[in-house]
Write the structure tokens for this entry.
Amino acid sequence: MTEETQIHPTADVSPEAKVGPGTKVWHQAQVREEAKVGNSCVLAKGVYIDKAVRIGNRVKVENYVSVYQGVTIEDDVIIGSQVSFTNDLYPRAFNQDWELLKTSVKKGASIGANATIICGLTVGRYALVGAGSVVTHNVPDYGLVFGNPAKLKGFVSKCGQKFGRGQTEDNLVRMECTKCGEVVEIPKNIYALVEK
């Protein structure tokens, strides 16, 4: 049996948007035309989903997040309260022919509350962005970044635990999570970017 979509009476969902089964759209959220929100998602209070945004399945978007046009969010992502995505590197109120830069948040990534994601970037699979961070560069798969500007501080497993020091094998660094047992191999040149 398929779960029903739940849309709060104060939410504003365009008839031209697609919202999947089991998804909950809460108080004062707005989903604009041509947006596509997958199955079993949660759009919390005051969330803004701009025109043509793509959101996968089982995504949690917490209170007052703004997801602007050009952003794609894959499955199993959590976006913390008041995160903001941008889509214009050179904003001017009078600029009529600005360039939309696309941003991608890959499967399983987590973005902490009050982070800002500058446009044109990719946040990798199962990456973790710390609260309050300003992300100005791509985040690698499993990467742990935080700060302003955000810096690569290590790598985390799917369960969110930070990996300890890895073992180098050829051009890869192999790490194993002491909590869930997941093994991840990171290219040596990416691992070398970790700020000490």
